């Protein structure tokens, strides 16, 4: 009954998305001076939930709690907008820092959802 709660899967997917987005933002910051580099990002998490791409996937049939099939990586897309420097680079450190803060908030929100759901589940079974 409690083995497959959707709220825990959703919180896990949200945290995984935040971690992957933070890695993309870090890569953008690392390439801030690279000529011709275009800033990248991930699709918003809300968009991924609507299309159903947040579920856990198993790479082998004997993995637990996942559907068999190849794991679909999060798709990196070019970031729209922004000003382009004379060298063709469109990474702005200020914008990347704002995106990093937003991603940190998303990760904190996922942890809060997980902790709150765990507290509710524990009180439902009579433990604190």
Task: Tell me the layout of helices and strands.
Blueprint: H1 6-30, E1 40-42, H2 45-51, E2 57-58, E3 67-68, E4 76-78, H3 93-125
Textual characterization of the structure:
This protein is mainly α and about 130 residues long. It has 3 helices and 4 strands. It has helices at about 5-30, 45-50, 95-125; strands spanning about 40, 55-60, 65-70, 75-80. The strands form 2 sheets. Strands 1-4 form a two-stranded antiparallel sheet. It has a two-stranded parallel ribbon with strand order 2-3. α1 packs antiparallel against α3. The chain is elongated. It starts with 5 loop residues before the first helix and ends with a helix. The mean pLDDT is about 80.
List keywords for this structure.
128 residues; mainly alpha; two-stranded antiparallel sheet; 51% helix; 8% strand; cilium; flagellum; Flagellar basal-body rod protein FlgB; cell projection
Structure in a nutshell:
It comes from Lutimaribacter pacificus. Helix content is 51%, strand content 8%.
Task: Show unreliable segments.
Answer: none
The value of Rg in angstroms is 18 Å
Task: Work out the count of structural domains.
Answer: 1
Mean pLDDT: 82
Sequence of secondary-structure elements: HEHEEEH
How many runs of DSSP E, i.e. beta strands? 4
Biggest sheet details: 2 strands, antiparallel
Structural class: mainly alpha
* Shape, principal axes of CA atoms: elongated
User: Gap between N and C termini, in Å?
Assistant: 20 Å
Strand residue content: 5-15%
């Amino acid at each position: 009954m409690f083995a497959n709660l959707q709220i825990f899967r959703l919180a896990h997917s949200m945290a995984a998305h935040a971690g992957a987005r933070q890695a993309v933002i870090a890569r953008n910051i690392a390439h801030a001076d690279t000529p011709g580099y275009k800033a990248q990002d991930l699709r918003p998490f809300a968009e991924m939930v609507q299309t159903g791409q947040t579920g856990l996937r198993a790479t082998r049939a004997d993995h637990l709690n996942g559907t068999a099939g190849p794991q679909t990586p999060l798709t990196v897309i070019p970031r729209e907008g922004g000003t382009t420097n004379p060298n063709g680079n469109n990474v702005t450190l200020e914008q990347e820092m704002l995106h990093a803060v937003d991603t940190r908030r998303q990760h904190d929100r996922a942890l809060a959802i997980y902790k709150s759901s765990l507290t509710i589940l524990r009180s439902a079974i009579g433990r604190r």
